[in-house]
Amino acid sequence: MSIENRTAGDGAGRTAVINTDNRTAAKDMPESALQIINLSKTYSDFRLDRINLTLPSGYIMGLIGENGAGKSTLIRTMLDIVRKDEGEVKFWGKPFDPADSSFKEHVGLVLDDNKFPVEATAADMQKIMSMCYRTWDSGRFEELLKRFRLPENKKIKDYSRGMKMKISIAAALAHDSRLLVLDEATSGLDPVAREEILDVFREFIQDEGHSILISSHILSDLEKICDYITFIHGGRLIFCENKDVLTDKYAIVRCSRENYEAIDESAAVSCRMNEFGVEALVERARVNPAFEMRPAGIEDIMLYFAKEDVK
């Protein structure tokens, strides 16, 4: 199947591009799990500025950006936890209606500050959540409690931060979720526990009707599991791109200042200069291969694009 390019202007003169490879959703599934169109929210000191992105069904999108960039605001606004100023949100091709409670059956939400009743136990949460979701699966919840080694009769207030995040994830997965929306879901977990959680997400996405939107400051986690990376900086969309396209396209070059002058200015995103020379993020194909280059990771790409954006 040919590659399909989706483009969406971000309102700041840029174009966000999503490339879909030959892994397709089932024929009876909508093309996109989530579509955000010109979504904006203004506070006294911050503006989420006309965000456009599309998450195809069957894929994982990582949402990156520094603290205060707008990642959590985007998630909360798209779900109407915070009232948007303008824009439209669609789930599975249908405009999101906050008054339609049925949609919550299919969206598993984990926020960084999820607040379960502190005096409740996991057993209590089983009862509470079964009243909130028609599709609640008690067996699945109990299975995840065991997998995450969460005690059923210990009060949530006595859980560690990592345990609280795990029970939130268990709750998000224990009803008919087709889309997981995760804000810092691996935050507070040690490396072993994070890998355990990532394995759960990998299993979830094996169903081509399932999708994940996940924000995280732990970019190594996102590099492991994400198909797409969306970078929000200062409330604006900087890029939304296939992860492999990003890492194939860009490289870090190190050279003298004199040699750097020989690189086409339009091929370099931004650079750092010091007494020893120059380090720059460049488009690999547009730079002489004689230059010393190393692969650029997602963190490299984010940092250099942020540096370029604030010039």
Verbal overview:
This protein is α/β, with parallel strands linked by helices and 311 residues long. The chain is built from 9 helices and 16 strands. The chain has a 6-stranded mixed β-sheet with strand order 8-9-10-5-11-12, sandwiched between helices. A hairpin with a 2-residue loop joins strand 14 and strand 15. Helix 3 runs antiparallel to helix 4. The longest helix is centred in the middle third of the chain and has 14 residues. The chain is elongated. It starts with a strand and ends with a helix.
Key features?
311 residues, alpha/beta, six-stranded mixed sheet, 16 strands, elongated, disordered N terminus
String of helices and strands:
EEEEEHEEEHHHEHEHEEHEHEEEH
DSSP helical segment count:
9
Q: In whole angstroms, how far apart are the ends?
A: 40 Å
Number of strands: 16
* Class from helix and strand fractions: alpha/beta
Low-confidence stretches: 1-30
Shape: elongated
Proportion of beta-strand residues: 25-35%
Residue-averaged pLDDT, rounded? 87
Rg from alpha-carbon coordinates: 21 Å
> Sheet bearing the most strands, described?
6 strands, mixed
Spatial ordering of strands, largest sheet: 8-9-10-5-11-12
Helix content: 25-40%
Provide the fold topology.
Layout: E1 4-9, E2 15-20, E3 32-42, E4 47-56, E5 60-64, H1 71-78, E6 86-91, E7 94-95, E8 107-110, H2 122-132, H3 138-147, H4 161-173, E9 179-183, H5 191-204, E10 211-215, H6 219-225, E11 228-233, E12 236-242, H7 243-249, E13 250-255, H8 257-260, E14 268-274, E15 277-283, E16 292-295, H9 298-309
Helix pairs in contact: 3-4
